[in-house]
Amino acid sequence: MNHDEVTSVVHPGLWLVSTPIGNLDDLSPRSAAVLKSARVICCEDTRHSGTLLKRIGAQPERLIVANEHTEHDVIEDVLTVLATGEIVAFITDAGTPAISDPGERIVRAAIAAGNKVHATPGPAAFVMAAALSGLPTTRIAFDGFLPRSGSERRERLTEVAHERRTTVLYEAPHRLMRTLSDLAEACGPSRRVCIARELTKLHEELWRGTLSEAVAHVESTEPRGEYAIVIEPATNEAAEISDLIIVQEIANRMNGGLSKRDAIDEVTAALGVPRNRVYALAVNS
Predict the structure, then answer these.
(1) Which domain does 227 fall in, by range?
(2) Pseudo-torsion of CA 161, 165, 168, 169, nearest 10°?
């Protein structure tokens, strides 16, 4: 396919191009066509992306590093190129841009400036993990990485525990054990889970069982690579926010060192119930 043929089917604007999460053969022909057409390509790491671009013969005039630290700084640069009617492609190290990866801020800025934004569909680890998990997939909640500590982490864990949809999280290997232990405490040890790693790669691995079994499994292994954790939805009974659940959540936080006032605020936010109800239960418990 020559340059004229490619540009005739790739419209000017910002393109979010999904890239393989492991197996380079998963790059779609359309994604390759966009990357070959782009005057500028934004990427997280020029060395990593350079391997993919060389493989398909893409030779942009310029690569712009747009990672979690630099994305905001390069927005004006990207908008300047888009204003000339050129094609700018945005890729991340793996998967779909703006989905638990850089891209969201540039997309928002491009739209606000009146530019067209396009996308090529492709790999997303959380979608693949959910599909392979054996858990319900009619309704899925993707929650990315949990906050590392503090009230935000406790709030998110409480939300997951009462979520009626299958939830997918991402986690780094060195934090996997702690997250599974926290999930077992928040959701109960018998909640089913699927742990996926190295998806689409030679050593792809999926483990299925309960949260308590998952903790024991990880204790006996050496976690490597990024993980997707797929968590079974809460039952109707578990999802129902009873007075007992509220009282238990308040007690858990106060036992962890929070004041009654801070515990009330956290439980109100985490469970999405009226503050006056939480306050009354805290006072009377």
Answers:
(1) 126-235
(2) -30
